[in-house]
């Protein structure tokens, strides 16, 4: 408690010193991890933020904390999520001129944090500026990951529409704008970055050579903040205005009023001049509540496509494809179809978990040549159990809530608006949002084809009620227990 109070005072002072806007951009997601002896550990969700704060604000942060408690000698910034820590760093050391992309023959799987991965995500393109000579140069950024192509992207029911839209855009000539802006959203590790980079890789290598920029929202923030600091924002804006295809990844991380204003201008300029924009985020544009309403509204004006988790066949194909690529480097590598199939069945959560599972297998294979299925289970225990078998289903939520409130499941998804049905329906929607990774529109569809705003309203309402109504809070907790027991 004492530590939390200290952190709260520190946050207030920091906000007062740097201003609301800068604070929201860089420190809104800063959390206290621990204070032990004289060391304060703070966490942020991404490597980029860690690097930015370490480079620019560490001294200021240390001074403020020492003013609060003179025993504090050191402050450390850590990345709090393992999956995010694999993100590449958009550091100031990053060359602003694009470099040659890594070899296409490189294996598709690579250890987290490897140099290849580090340069893979935050990237833009060598831009061949139409008929202009190469010396006209790239705008900014570093290479794309050449392994993220359409060829290495496995198609299936969960991503078919998104893939088709992506290919159409990659193939369209400059000016031939489709679905603008295209917004692709999904849970983590389901292939958004891969797809976005495949669009970029394909577009830049086409004969038309459009001017393409791919960057994460965080890189955009960093690049703009740096340009503003260096009084160079006009040059940056000018160069961005002249591109044909803008691809922005991880939109949910775009923060800060000033930066969002800049992004909004850029978006308006590109869309109004019929330039294609592709954006990806971890949820639909209308659910990105931290976004400036004007940005949200422009993004909503295009086409939003959700990607779901890959099914068994897709997962199996992904593993097979990874093995083929890895075998190009090491022809002696042999993993049986039985093992691949077993892994595809047990690791059902995301492409990223499959990638982790595959890397683990390759690593183990080098000193345990004959892996049994039991041994595979042991090795992948941390990834197994997040799969389909364990996933909470909306149908189960509806069934359990309906039984608890003595209404039928049909009534829950019907149009009836009587109080006896409305409250259980809203609770079921709330539970669907909190216990499953489903989006608002998806939940709306599963509740009799309701609009996503109805679900949003229900979730907010129950959230509000729970804070003041202990009885309801207990009811909801009981329902959560029942649902989890049903799923155990
Ligand atoms: N359909 C697919 N075919 C081949 N590989 C895939 C597919 N979907 C995901 N992957 C692989 O899974 C890993 C994670 O994918 P990616 O980074 O694109 O996910 P993401 O949705 O951008 O995740 P995040 O939300 O964390 O940014 C990558 O190695 C990617 O190549």
From TrEMBL:
Residues in Chromosomal replication initiator DnaA C-terminal domain copies: 393-462
Lineage: Bacteria, Pseudomonadati, Pseudomonadota, Alphaproteobacteria, Hyphomicrobiales
A GO CC term assigned to this protein in UniProt: cytoplasm
HAMAP family, sorted: DnaA_bact (MF_00377)
SUPFAM superfamilies in alphabetical order: P-loop containing nucleoside triphosphate hydrolases, TrpR-like
Entry note about domains: Domain I is involved in oligomerization and binding regulators, domain II is flexibile and of varying length in different bacteria, domain III forms the AAA+ region, while domain IV binds dsDNA.
PANTHER family: CHROMOSOMAL REPLICATION INITIATOR PROTEIN DNAA
Species name: Pseudorhizobium pelagicum
Ranges for region Domain I, interacts with DnaA modulators: 1-99
InterPro entries linked: AAA+_ATPase, Chromosome_initiator_DnaA, Chromosome_initiator_DnaA-like, Chromosome_initiator_DnaA_CS, DnaA_C, DnaA_dom, DnaA_N_dom, DnaA_N_sf
Ranges where the AAA+ ATPase domain occurs: 178-306
Name under which the protein is recorded: Chromosomal replication initiator protein DnaA
Gene it is expressed from: dnaA
Localization terms from the record: Cytoplasm
